[in-house]
Amino acid sequence: MIKTIAAVAVLALAHAGTADAKPGVDFAADAKLLYRVAACGDGALPEAFAKADKIVDHHCRVIHEHMDKFKTTYFDKGRAWFDAVVPKDAPKTIVYPFGGGDLISALVAFPEATEITTISLELAGDPRRIESLTPAQLESSLGALRSEIGGLVSVGSNTSENLSAGQRNELPTQVSSFMLGLVAGGYEPVGMRYFTLDDQGQIHYLEQADLDAADKDAKRRAKKLKGDWQSPAFSDAFGNVEIEYRKIGETAIRVHRHIGWNLGDPYLAKHAELIKHLEAKGKVTVLTKGGSYMLWRGDFSQIRDYMLGHLAWMLSDSTGIPPAYATKAGMVQETYGNYDGAFLEQVRGDGADEAFKALWRAQPRRKLAFRFGYVDQDAQAHLVVTKPKS
Questions:
Q1: What is the helix (H) or strand (E) element at residue 276, kind and residue range?
Q2: % helix / strand / coil in the chain, to the nearest 5?
């Protein structure tokens, strides 16, 4: 059995230098273990995994095959496009609503970001279980992980079904996905803490007593944030995560936070602390893609209004802010690629769909050589920039 990894393997994975001390339990050791085993980062496999080395090697061969293609398409060939389109003075604080486990896309588009916040229905997950999995359990969990993040490692996007299933894995699928993003982008984790938001949107880092209380109380099982999703297999202490990371070879610490939240108006009306937390960041750069067209709907007005009130620059596919809302807020939109109708059939012909088609027709064709988010109904790649009128 793989056991006592917290005392053995974690020490072998520790890198020189850590993030500055702050409140809360630091799961840096587990983060580094997931970085190596689940996300296939560089480094020797800990001795405690000797009986599972072939399992991890197989997993990493598959992961590297997909990630090498992804890095070639996005980090290498796509770099020139992002460098040309993203303004040099765009805020380095990124807010990515409807982001799922997709840190990797934020790192593709904004490699110099110093703070990234992803928000979605998916909860971060409990990182501690990797410390006690048997080889058989590890093999099963890594296989499920490859399935659950399949779209992420091919086109930087995933299905709701996979994201929902990930909350039942013995490994924390969201955290593992974030580690994949760090590996692909040439970064490494140096700290990881879990947190809640108070009524004013301020961060409260969880201490050991908070985690112990959640573990002991059966009523503290995390609740799914959407009715048709699978219930998480961990406590509510592991909903929101903060990962401190750095570029390999550098010392500057950057921060990624993932917040598990339902962005619909009914939920936000009862849980206003998220909007307060986001508003405190001031002007930000916004990314949205693969968002199931929620921002087209009337019952997602609060998050849409936040975005329109605080974006200094925004990149999205057609699931972003529709032209009618953008124009009313004093924004202009610039199109890339081709768009002839929504990817999801159920929203084709919607007023926002027709407005986006008109927006693309009214502008000169600007090339886009890769998919980044949803394609349109004809499998055409497309993106739109939304920004305040100059």
A1: helix 273-279
A2: 45, 20, 40
Residue indicated by tokens 């009337």: 298
Q: 10 phi and psi, to 5 degrees?
A: -60, -40
User: What is each CA distance from 294 to 322, 344, 358, in whole angstroms?
Assistant: 11, 12, 20
- Give DSSP secondary structure letters for 27-80: -HHHHHHHHHHTS--SSPPPGGGGGGHHHHHHHHHHHHHHHHHHIIIIIIITHH
Q: What is the pLDDT along the chain (390 residues), one digit of tens a residue?
A: 444 433 344 434 444 344 457 899 999 999 999 999 999 999 888 888 888 999 999 999 999 988 888 899 998 889 999 999 999 999 999 999 998 889 999 999 999 999 999 999 989 999 998 888 889 999 998 998 888 776 556 544 544 444 444 455 688 889 999 999 999 999 999 999 999 999 999 999 999 999 999 888 766 766 655 556 566 667 789 999 999 999 999 999 999 999 999 999 999 999 999 999 999 999 999 999 999 999 999 999 999 999 999 999 999 999 999 999 999 999 999 999 999 999 999 999 999 999 999 999 999 999 999 999 999 999 999 999 999 998
H helices then E strands: how many in the chain? 15, 10
User: Which bin fits 156, alpha (ψ -120 to 50), beta or left (φ > 0)?
Assistant: left
Q: Which two tokens stand for residue 231?
A: 């219930």
* 51 in Cβ contact with 2 (< 8 Å): yes
Q: Is 290 left (phi over 0), alpha (psi -120 to 50) or beta?
A: left
Angle between helices 135-148 and 173-185 (to 10 degrees): 70
213: tokens are: 């209380």
Identify any residues that bridge with 385 across adjacent strands, giving them in sequence order.
315, 334
The DSSP secondary-structure symbol of 20 reads P
- Residue 99 to residue 259: CA distance in whole angstroms: 10
- 339 residue type, one letter: Y
Neighbours of 53 (CB within 10 A): 13
**CB burial class (10 A; 0-12, 13-18, 19+) of residue 195?**
buried
pTM of structure:
0.89
